[in-house]
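WARN no homologs supplied; continuing
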Amino acid sequence: MNITCNKNELLKSISLLAQIISNKPQSRPILSNILLIAANDKLTLISTDMEMGININIPLIHCYENGEILLPAHQLLSILREAVSEEIRIEVLERTAILSGRSFQYKLPAFSNEEFPEVPELTGETIKVNKTTLNRLIKEVAFAMNRDRNRYQLNSILLSINEDKMEAVATDQVRLAFSNAEMEEKIEGERKLVFPSKTVPVITSILSEEKEDGVQLILGDAQMTLKFSKGYFIVRLVEAQFPNYRNAYESYISVPDILIPTESITQAIRQVILLTCENAKNIAVILEKEHITFKASTPLGEGKVELDIDYQGEDMTVGMNPYFVQDFLKEVSSQNIETIRLKIVGPKKPIIMSPHDHYIYFMSPTSV
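OK structure emitted
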């Protein structure tokens, strides 16, 4: 192999490929590498961890000699991040790859690709979706996933495509977020896809970088391929049961919304969270006529923030995890949404927050 390619194009692709490579692939060290295939003025880059894989194509400036070789992913990524040259030359001589550019040269071990697993592209039912919509839905719910890798089923996101609607759902059994949007192309029936949390940064990176408006989801029995302009990403799907989230919100539609400016509730939560600690995270939310108070009382001290609101209901106090609220508000704030709708039903009922009807967030109440 002897090629020259654009450094920025290569860096973007290697950065994405490296996301699915473990820092310590103990069982199969070969998976810590990226496969490079140069042919016909095109460079194909492939990485996998056996549960998901990426195949990306980028153009070459020059292809002096075709070839296939495995290079260590993290060392390659580190070199490209520091390289100041606009062009990178990669030349393979026996078991050594020479990376060179303006004022620098590196030598990396190059390995045979004989034992590197295949990353196939699925064939099957194909659904075209808008890349911006899919990216937004995933980001809006991802924070509510369970972070415990031992609870694999909850460490995932459900994507449901049902006729003319697409929904994303995530839960850790203490909170649940779901978001939906209209589909540009209608399908018959419903398709449910559950993919593990480790795919989320990969998928959102692909969608954020994609220049075309649409991407394709190719569905298999237990796998899904996300096809985009530069290549494809394949992932093994998870078998998991999610709660009946659609009916959950309907039970509380009649409860009046409390409207609070996003900036005001964000500042209030940020202020009372200062007095929480690892062993005392919860705060009290106190509803009174025309007022809502967020109060923290912990070993670190006591503090409260009061906001004026349009509330005429009964006085009520419920417990809340402010960190859960903060996670939601970070996502909402990134979208420049001005007002939050808050539903508080009772001390033992879910606390519901929403910027609009298509994005709902449930939190279990806590002890005060």
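The CA atoms of residues 280 and 346 lie 21 Å apart.
OK
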